[in-house]
Each structure stands twice: as C-alpha cells, then as structure tokens.
Design brief:
The chain is of the alpha+beta class. Helices cover 42% and strands 16% of the residues.
Length: 880
C-alpha cells in the first residue's frame, strides 16, 4: 500500500475545513438575513397557508355540495334501549366517512339537527353524505321510528338572530354527566323551546356534527397528557420527599428523641447513634387509563361540534331563548361540561355573532362542516341523550300547529277547552270538525261534562252547523238559551219539550209511522220494530210471536199512510196508537186490508187471512201494553197521536237545524219513547245514502246522560257509533260512568272515539278511561284534578294529541260577548214556533178524533168493506 504524500494530505484537510467553515458561515449569514427580513418569511408562510386553506375549503365545499337529509319521527311508545342508541351512534360514525378519498376531514361529518319552529315541538333530522343514506335509512329502533327523506328547509329572514358555539370545558379526559333515559335527556332542551311562538317568528335550532377523531391528533394529545401526568407525579413525589425529610428532621431534633437516644446508649459504646437514613419515596407509576381517561381507547371516540342559532322577529326573544338553551346544556355537565365559546366584557359577550368568528360559524352552519376550535372529543356513550328522537318519557308541549286555536265562527273547528301553555299563556284549543268523528266525555256529576258539550254545541251552531241535543233533564236548554238568542239563529232552532211544564204546555208532534216525507215503507217499519225490540229486550228467541204480530200490524198501518199520502190526505194517516184497533177491531182491520191491497204483496196479506185468525186475544197483550202506557201519558199521547208530525230529523240534518229534544224522564214509558227517537235518528242518518258523500251536510247529535239513553236503546246507540260516520253524522256522548254502559255501546264507543275526555272521579270509575291511554296519566292522578278540569285525548289530522289537561270552557267566560239574556223569551217562542208546538189540550183533542178520521178514509178507499165498518161509541175515543 502506497501512502499519499504529506503535503497532499494537509491540503485536503485544509480544503474540507474550509468547506465546513464556509457552510457554517453561510448558514449564519442566512439566519441573520432571515432575522433581519422576518416579515418575508412570515409572508411566505402566510401565503402558503392561505393557498392551502383556500384549496381545502374549495374541496370541502365541493364534497358537501351533495348531501342527504333524513327525518326521524318517533311513535308515541318509542322507548329505546341503550344498545339501540349506541348502534345508531356507530352507524352515524360510519356514515360520516362515506365520502370521496379526496374530501377534507372537515367535510367528513354527519350532522344531527334539532329544530323547533312552531310546526312540531322538536324535529329530529340527520344530514350527511349521500353515501351514508342507505346505511342510515334503516335504524336500530325498528318500527317505533319512521325514517323518511326530508325536504330542504328554507327559512324566512328574521329580524333578530343570535348564534353560539358550545365547546367542552373542564378536565379534557373526564366524560360528560351520565344521564338516565327516564326522564328523557332531551327534556331540558324541549322545555327550553316549549314557549316558542310561531306567530312571533321564533326559531331555535341545534346542530351537532359528529366525525371520527383524527388519530394523529389523538396520539399527540395522549403523549402530551402522559407527559403532563408523569411530571405531575414527579412533582408530587418530590414534594412528598421534602415534607418527609422535614418531618424526620423535626423528630430527631426534638427533646423526646434526644432522651430516647441517651437512654438507649450502652456502656462503653461511646456516643449515641447517628441520624437515620431517609429514603425518598419512588414516583408512582402512571397508569394510562387513569391519565388518559376517556381518551385511552380509540374505539367509538368522536370529535363533535355543537352550534346553536336562535331567531325571532321580536327583540329580546332570541337572546332569551339562547339563555334557556345554555341552561339546558348545563344539565349534561359534570367534570366536563358544555360552555359557550367567547369572551365577556362587562354586559357584552363577544362570540359567534361578531368578527372574526361569525364568518366561520356561517360557513360551518351552511355546509355542515365539522371544524371545532377545540378537539371536543367525546365517546358515543356520552352522547346518548342526543343520538335519538324524543321518547315516551319526554313531555312534549302542545303547540298551535299541533292543536289549533279556537276561532269563533270557524265551521272547521270544534271547541275543546282552555289549554295553559308552559309560559303560562292560556288559549282556547279546538279540533278540526272533519277529524272529530265521535266524542265521549265521562266524569262525576258536576264536573263540567255538560258545560263543555254545551260550549262546543253553541260554537258549532254559531258557525252554521246543525245539531240535535238530547237531554232527559232539560237543564241544558235554559243554560244555552242566552247564548243562542241571536236573530240569525232563531229560524234554525226548534224545541221538542216533552216535560209538560206549566198548566197548558205547548207540545210538538211526531208520527213515527208518517209517510208524508217520502220515507221507504220498510225502513219505517224496521225502525219501530227495532225500537220495540231494543226497549223490551225482544229477539227471535225470546219473543218470536210478538215480533211477528208487530211487524204485520206496522206493515199494514204504514201502507195505509202511504195510501193517504198518495191521495194527498196526510191528515188522515194512522198513528202508533191505531195498532190496537187493527188487532182487535175486525171491521177496521178489514177496511185497512182492503185499502192497502195494491201496496202489500200476497204473502203479507195471506198472513192476515191464514195465521191471524188462529191467534188468541192474549197474544196481543205483549204488543199493546207499551202502547197503552204511551197513551196513558197525555204529553206522549199528544206528541205521537198526530197524523202528520212536524218532527223530522232527516230534514233537520239536511237543513242545519238546531234541535233540542227533552224526552221528559227515565221511566219505562220515557225509555220506550227514547228508543223510538234514537232508532228514527239512526234510520234518518242511514237514509242519507241517497245523497253524494261530498254533498252530505255534517250533523252532530249530542247525547247527555248516555246511561239513560242506552238503557232504552243499547243496540241502536252502538250502531250509531259504528255506522254514522259514513253519513257525516257525528255522535257526542256524555256519561258519569263508562262501565255502566251496556257492553256493545261501551266497546263501540271507545273503539271509534276521536276524542276521549274525563273529569275527576273515583279511581275505579276512571280506570276504564285511563286504560285506553296506557295508564298515562294514572287514575290516581286524574282523580285528584280540580273541578272543571278535563283530561282529553284528541285526533288532529290523523294524529293523536294528548292526553293533556284542559280546563273546561265556561259559557259565561268563553261566550260572554254572545250572551243575549233579554232575548231569551223571544227565542223560546221562536223555537216552539219552528217545532209547531201547540197547546196540549188542542193536540189531545185532535189525537182523540184521529181514529174516526182514519176509519172514514178507509171507508172511502175501500168501498167493498165500507158497509161493514162499524165503530162502537167507546171506540170514538181512541186509547192506545
């Protein structure tokens, strides 16, 4: 091996040293130049950052241009479990990544929108990438939550708008407070927007953006937290060692320690022992789970962004709403809490409404980007309360959009009661007439059932609606009179009063067999037979012969009346009291059969020729006894004994009449008359099938004291609740005890009731109503309600509202402006005139002479049998 010459080696070393020196000198000069021209470096960095930020924003805006929106609508019985809520959170986290690979992280987010604008108490929407729509369309909540594609929301500009961003404050590794599912964690937020008023332009919206936590930022944060924990532990160890040494020195310098040392010295050992050796405690090992807390694991760790905006057209309401929401979010706080971002300077708060943060807030709000100023890391378990719609444990307010406000004179609304809102304001609430098909009101006597029904009926009457109010006690008529005493209502009101008050009362008239209105013969016969059977509990098994006799007799009398109307002589029609003459007087029977020969078929006439002669007179007693009881009462005899009655419930339906019917009592005779009236109402309503459905005028029968009415005609009332909806005849019934109603009536009534209401009462009586609501509220809670308070469930646009608590409307308060007490007398006279009520003695005299008129008519239209017609002197005065 040949070595280089010494002078060449020295030259190479000098060259390398010079190069290093030159490099160092150049670096020093460059650093000095940059230090002197630092602004150029800052400008370059700013330009690079600005260009990069601009590119990222453009890419994020492009990625967010196509987004999907889903609205989650829970059912009334939505009661999720924690596992179901957690699974939805996992789906949201997965859906946030369903974007192109080039999309910036800020755009990879799913947004939960909680919105209250007056349309619903709290709308729950999920917005995110289009690629996540299929994943989120099927929720783990099953059929209890309906998921539908949501339309874009376009807000009208409000005069006043406030914005806020909430960030996590407190210990960053500590979780938010764990909230139970009952009551609903959303309840504070719902309460914060419960007094929102859509008419003032109030709006409140919360947007929670969720995305997966960035791993690089999470690792850096973990290193920082672990380093801080170790330093803290070392400081604690050093502090403990210092205090330990101080305590040891103090003990060794004490008099007691010195004496102990002197006493413990052994002879010849010299001086005492030296100071003890103090060993400092070793620093405790830092456990990652303790130091990192909720950040220890990557699984289900999310970064969130919480934005809030409130608006209103009234000054101060938006700010107050934001303060309410801020207080609501305090419920979620523990060692970590939601705090509003910004600075407070005296009475002013600088936050998202001011530069420079407002522009960034608007961009994130409009594009759905998740770019919080702080990490805001949370686990899915901490967001349980926000990852679901409101549940059955959430008490939702009743807004004007849910339950309309009653407006006097509006034919589309039915008054229900007085609702007191969360803000203390009271308003008259109503249901839509087309949604209120049947209504049931229960509760103890004096609780306000009849008053509420009267208020509803009076409001309906003033709006132009027709009704019939059936009240066996008649107390409702004088109560309603002052509020109906208006000139435009007088021509539509008719009073059918069968109480017989006064020395010579005025009574209207009705012939159940009358044919002057063109009813089909078989319908009239069926109505009376069904009324008989209902009032007397007849059926084909218990009273077949009585039903056969009654059917044959009514068929003949209805045919006689049909013949009289065809001849233009409705005043010669037979009444229900002529059944006795037909069954017991051979001459009258022969004349009647001869007159109706062309209206009845041969089979019907053959029965009278072959079967009737074989019957004994005792077989007629069961048919004639109810009629005899009706004839014994002068009022019912006068009411039913007229040939061409005025009462025509079908005409009242079609002409929007307001009819008050007061049967007069609850005895056997009154129940039989009530059964006749109820069956005629059912027949009249069913007869409206000859009118096109869109041209049928709505009509509302109100039945006070359903127990008395259903005792007379249980199957008839049950059929009304089952069938009359088709004919736009909507029943409203009131009763003290629902269990006392016959089973068919109770089942049909509860099954089809659009509105179900109850006042206070005994728990056993109320239990049948609360059972329909799932015992929410419970019977003991309703039993303690104040007088005139009602718990009501209603149907509005196909959705059930309630049960909610309403105060019953009092006529003197609700319709004080409509009261006309000075016109009461004139209205009562007009109501009797519309019913063509005449003095009782005049109608009684006319009813007594009707048999002779019918016999004369039969003699005229049946020449062959006229010579045989002979009426005894005793038969000149008819008795049923």
């Amino acid at each position: 091996m040949v070595s280089a010459p010494p002078h060449l080696t020295e030259l190479a070393g000098d060259t390398a040293a010079g190069q290093v020196l030159a490099l160092v000198t150049g670096l020093v000069d460059a650093a000095g130049w940059l230090f002197g021209h630092w602004y150029l470096l800052a400008l370059a960095i700013a330009v690079c950052w600005g260009v990069g930020e601009l590119v990222v924003r453009r890419l994020a805006a492009r990625a967010s241009a196509d987004r999907m929106a889903l609205e989650l609508v829970p059912s009334r019985h939505f009661d999720p479990r924690l596992e179901e809520i957690f699974r939805l959170g996992v789906q949201l986290a997965r859906a946030s990544t369903a974007m192109p690979w080039w999309a910036p992280r800020r755009a990879k987010a799913v947004q939960i929108r909680l919105r209250a604008d007056g349309s619903t108490p709290l709308r729950y929407r999920i917005e995110g990438p289009v690629g996540g729509q299929r994943l989120l369309s099927i929720t783990p909540f099953g059929p209890d939550v309906t998921v539908a594609a949501a339309r874009p929301i376009v807000d009208e500009p409000r005069t006043h708008t406030v914005r806020a961003e909430f960030i996590l404050r407190g210990k960053p590794t500590a979780p938010l407070r764990e909230l139970p599912l009952s009551p609903d964690p959303l309840q504070p937020l719902v309460d914060a927007v419960a007094d929102l008023r859509a008419d003032l332009g109030d709006l409140a919206e919360i947007r929670l953006a969720i995305q997966r936590a960035p791993k690089w930022a999470l690792r850096a944060r973990r290193l920082q937290l672990m380093g801080a924990a170790r330093r803290s532990e070392r400081r604690e160890s050093q502090r403990a060692t210092l205090w330990f040494r101080r305590d040891a020195s103090g003990i060794e310098d004490s008099l007691g320690w010195r004496l102990q040392q002197l006493l413990s010295d052994k002879p010849g050992s010299g001086s005492g022992a030296g100071r003890r050796l103090v060993m400092p405690p070793a620093p405790r090992r830092v456990e990652p789970t303790e130091a990192l807390g909720k950040l220890a694991e990557d699984d289900h760790l999310m970064r969130v962004q919480l934005l809030v905006m409130c608006a209103s057209n009234t000054e101060g309401r938006a700010e107050a709403r934001l303060a309410q929401l801020q207080a609501a979010f305090d419920v979620f706080g523990g060692r970590s809490r939601w705090a509003m971002r910004g600075w407070r300077l005296g009475p002013w708060r600088i936050g998202a409404d001011y530069w420079p943060t407002q522009r960034g807030f608007e961009r994130r709000w409009n594009l759905g980007h998740c770019q919080p100023p702080r990490p805001n890391w949370v686990r899915l378990e901490e967001l349980t309360g926000l990852l679901k719609p409101p549940t059955l444990h959430c008490r939702l307010p009743v807004l004007a959009s849910d339950l309309p406000t009653f407006e006097f004179g509006d034919p589309d609304l039915l008054l229900q009661g007085v609702y007191r809102g969360p803000d203390g304001r009271e308003r008259l609430v109503a249901t839509h007439a087309e949604d209120t098909l049947f209504e049931v009101g229960t509760g103890k006597a004096g609780g306000g059932k009849t008053e509420r029904a009267l208020a509803q009926a009076i409001g309906w009457a003033h709006a132009g609606g027709g009704l019939v109010f059936v009240d066996p006690h008649r107390d409702s008529w004088p109560r309603a009179l002052p509020f109906l005493a208006h000139d435009h209502l007088a021509p539509r009101i008719a009073l059918i009063d069968l109480n017989g008050l006064g020395p010579n009362p005025r009574v209207s008239s009705w012939n159940p067999l009358g044919m002057q209105y063109g009813q089909p013969m078989h319908e009239v016969v069926e109505a009376i037979i069904d009324a008989y059977a209902s009032a007397l509990a007849w059926d084909d098994a218990t009273a077949p012969r009585a039903l056969t006799i009654l059917t044959a007799a009514l068929t003949v009398l209805v045919a006689v009346n049909e013949r009289a109307c065809q001849a233009g002589r409705p005043a010669d029609q037979a009444t229900i009291f002529h059944i006795r003459a037909l069954l017991t007087d051979a001459a009258f029977r022969k004349a009647a059969l001869g007159t109706v020969g062309g209206l009845l078929d041969e089979e019907a006439l053959a029965w009278w020729q072959s079967v009737f002669p074989t019957l004994s007179p005792d077989a007629f007693a069961v048919v004639l006894n109810p009629i005899a009881r009706l004839a014994a009462n002068p009022v019912t005899r006068a009411f039913l004994g007229q040939p061409a009655g005025v009462y025509n419930i079908r005409a009242a339906m079609d002409s929007r009449m307001i009819v008050w019917v007061c049967p007069g009592g609850n005895g056997p005779t009154d129940r039989f008359l009530t059964a006749l009236l109820a069956r005629d109402l059912l027949r009249a309503a069913r007869s409206r099938r000859d009118i096109p459905e869109d041209k049928r005028v709505p009509f509302r029968p109100y039945f006070d004291e359903l127990i008395a009415l259903t005792g007379a005609a249980p199957e008839t009332i049950a059929s009304m609740f089952e069938d009359l909806r088709k004919y736009k005849c909507h029943i409203h019934g009131m009763t003290q005890l629902l269990p006392r109603l016959p089973t068919p009536v109770r089942l049909s009534l509860v099954q089809n009731a659009s509105t179900l209401a109850t006042t206070a009462g005994s728990q056993s009586a109320i239990a049948s109503i609360t059972a329909e609501w799932g015992d929410n509220p419970s019977p003991d809670r309703i039993a303690t309600m104040e007088r005139f308070e009602h718990c009501v469930s209603m149907n509005v646009h196909g959705h059930r509202i309630g049960p909610i608590q309403l105060r019953g409307p009092h006529l003197d308060d609700v319709f004080a402006a409509q009261a006309r007490p000075r016109r009461v007398g004139a209205l009562e006279q007009a109501a009797q005139a519309n019913a063509q009520a005449l003095p009782l003695d005049q109608l009684t005299d006319r009813a007594a002479k009707q048999l002779a008129r019918v016999a004369a008519f039969l003699a005229e239209f049946s020449p062959a049998s006229a010579a045989a017609v002979h009426l005894s002197k005793g038969m000149d005065q008819e008795f049923g």
